[in-house]
């Protein structure tokens, strides 16, 4: 998950590159992937539930992008998600790599 959030951070530093459509597609990917991982036993229910805070944050960012909120505010929210992602990554070290392994499958 930290890879996803870092990609958003990089995109947000390029003015106008990040869009609500992109964020929504990442939310959908994350939601489906986490559900598959939980159902297959690759992650615990706790990891699944705690990942919801990232999904929620991404939903807020998407909504604010649709409303035309300033880049500064978006960057602040993304920085908050970076910190949340780091906490999840330290608590569930394999989570990020497992999520990313589903890309392109």
Please render the helix and strand layout as text.
Elements: H1 2-13, H2 20-39, H3 45-67, H4 71-91, H5 95-101
DSSP E strands, number: 0
- Structural class designation: mainly alpha
Low-confidence stretches: none
Query: What is the average per-residue confidence, as pLDDT, rounded to a whole number?
Result: 91
Helical content (DSSP H or I, runs of 4+): over 70%
Total DSSP helices: 5
N-to-C SSE series?
Answer: HHHHH
**Main sheet overview:** none
How does the overall form come out from the CA principal axes? globular
**Radius of gyration, in angstroms, nearest whole number:** 13 Å
Question: How many structural domains in the coordinates?
Answer: 1
Strand content: under 5%
What is the end-to-end distance?
17 Å
Descriptive tags:
79% helix; 105 residues; mainly alpha; 5 helices
Task: Describe, in plain words, how this protein is organized in 3D.
The protein is mainly α and about 100 residues long. About 80% of the residues lie in helices and about 0% in strands. The protein has five helices and no strands. The protein is globular and about 40 Å long. The two termini are about 15 Å apart. The mean pLDDT is about 90.
């Amino acid at each position: 998950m930290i890879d996803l959030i870092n990609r958003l951070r990089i995109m947000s530093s390029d003015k106008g590159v990040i869009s609500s459509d992109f964020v929504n597609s990442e939310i959908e990917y994350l939601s489906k992937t986490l559900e598959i991982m939980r159902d297959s036993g690759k992650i615990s229910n706790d990891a699944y539930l705690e990942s919801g805070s990232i999904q929620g944050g991404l939903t807020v960012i998407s909504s604010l992008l649709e409303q035309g909120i300033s880049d500064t505010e978006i960057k602040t929210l993304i920085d908050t998600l970076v910190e949340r992602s780091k906490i999840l990554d330290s608590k569930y070290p394999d989570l990020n790599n497992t999520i990313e392994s589903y890309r392109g499958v």
